[in-house]
Please model this.
Amino acid sequence: MTLDWNLLQDQFRVFLLVFVRLTAMVAAAPVLGNTLLRVPPQMIAGLGSALSLVVMMNLPSALAVPPFGLEYALRAGGEALVGLTLGFTATLILAGIQFGGEVIDHVIGFAISDVIDPITNESASLIGNLKGLLATVLFLALHGHHHLFRGVMRTFDLVPPGGAGLSTEVWPHLAALSEAVFTVGLQVAAPAILVMTLIWIPEGFLARMVPQLNLLVNDVPMRIGIGLFVVWLGIGPFVHLTEGLIESIAAASDRMALLMAARG
Model:
């Protein structure tokens, strides 16, 4: 039995295109692409390689791809764009949760206690990081990664390796998802904003009538305590909201795959 080196080289070029799309998706997706978890790039590349082997076993053997060169590099760039877009779609859906946690930090007074991340040397939001990590755990527990992988696998049915690209309709779709970040953030932070507003109104009148109380300083422990109590009461609705967002990842991924297939 002799090896067909030409066929082997063709399959290797196809594998690289598949690898680029999947690795880009994994790097931009929740969990592995989460900066809070510090996942090493070797793990991302390893998972991308394993997924690429699975995809290769289900692809038709006769796929025409150009030889290594400028055209091949351009097609690989298109694959990277598609993978990043799919991963970014799922990340945007969950980014609103962390944004909502950061809003809660500012509302209840935790913003003054931001800690410094020793790895990035940037300030870290306490409630924001907590909400982000909880959303990540729920993403795995509710099989959100399955929805994401099914979406990216479907792109290979609609857009074969080497034929990837982004249509002009993709950008309005991403813009709409970006708007959803703020909507979700307000939904997450709404209970704390409402309760704190109800506290601030009488405090404002009291501060005007008795300025000697110095409420700006003395009410900080009370606001933090009430805020944490509201966060605790909102765990149930938070899980329900996150579950709905994770289920929407499948629809968003399918929509993105259809837009990529209809490019031009």
